[in-house]
Write a structure and sequence with these properties.
Strand order of the largest sheet: 1-5-4-3-2
Strand content: 15-25%
Distance between the termini: 72 Å
Number of helices: 3
Number of strands: 5
Bound molecules: zinc ion
Radius of gyration: 23 Å
Length: about 140
């Protein structure tokens, strides 16, 4: 009797080429994701967060420069722990997610009970002025 091969992901009987392992692209992707090494999964999550960060900065900074409260970015899912580069000097550091970056600001005003955390967002075209970690 002919042995029917089954999809490695869903168990569906496979038809067609004898070297087929999955019934379709969806099952191949699901199976491969499930079997990815933990560090690869983590890197993929970090890369996704970096892209999300850039998308958020871009959406809040349509004309090259903008000042926005930190909570706005928090609510949109921004993660301040991830950036691709930085430049400036202590007290005036810009943190970049690809071509969009922000500088943390703290504003103290008489109307507010507590200091207000904000960021100044900028867009940058060139990356020649990256910070040297040993010169900070
Ligand atoms: Zn399948």
């Amino acid at each position: 009797m002919l042995q029917t091969k089954k999809c490695l992901n869903c168990g569906e009987a496979l038809t067609g080429r004898s070297d087929k392992r999955f019934c379709g692209d969806q099952c191949r992707a699901t199976h491969n994701n499930r079997n990815k090494a933990p560090h690869e999964q983590r890197m993929q999550e970090i890369n996704a967060q970096l892209r999300r960060n850039r998308t958020i900065l871009k959406s809040l900074c349509p004309i090259g420069k903008a000042t926005v409260r930190k909570e706005v970015l928090d609510e949109m899912g921004f993660d301040f722990g991830y950036y691709t580069s930085f430049f400036g000097k202590p007290g005036k550091l810009y943190f970049f997610c690809y071509d969009y970056g922000y500088m943390p600001l703290v504003e103290r005003s008489l109307n507010e009970q507590r200091p207000v955390r904000k960021v100044m967002i900028i867009q940058k075209q060139t990356f020649t002025d990256r910070a040297d970690p040993w010169l900070l």
